[in-house]
Specification:
Layout (H helix, E strand, L loop, with lengths): L2 H9 L4 E10 L5 E7 L6 E2 L2 E3 L6 H13 L2 E3 L2 E6 L5 E3 L5 E11 L1 E3 L9 E8 L9 H14 L2
Parallel strand pairs: 1-8
Antiparallel strand pairs: 1-4, 2-3, 2-10, 5-9, 6-8, 7-8
Length: 152
Amino acid sequence: MDYIKYLRGYVGHKPVILNGTSVIILDSRNRVLLQKRTYPQRNWGLPGGIMEMGESMEETGIREVFEETGLMVRGLTLLNVYSGKDFYMKLPNDDEFYLVNSVYYTREYSGELEVDSFEGTELKYFQLNKLPDYMVLSHRIFIQDFINKFYR
């Protein structure tokens, strides 16, 4: 089921609260996997997305990572839950929402990287201290919070 399409059928473009998950995936060299997104264009971001009805936050992360990267993740550990006025978004189609985003991290994954051309154009590992200039701002914050928690 496409929950967002279902919900928007009732509320149109009015603001709603959506739950989502982002996943920080670290490789054996301590690099983070980022996806060059189709939206917002040119911006790199973490794999993740919006929860479907009946899913747990962890299940959302596992599904979204697989859809966007081809990787199967395990051992998700909660970093933090982000919400509030700083997570308000208005999309080009005028849909408005406030995001409640659970951010997890893991080093446990299997599979081969495979770009989902609908959501992204490239997948690449980056050193934690050498992130790309063009990034989804909130995702940069998530990664910085991860660094602050484990490397300071």
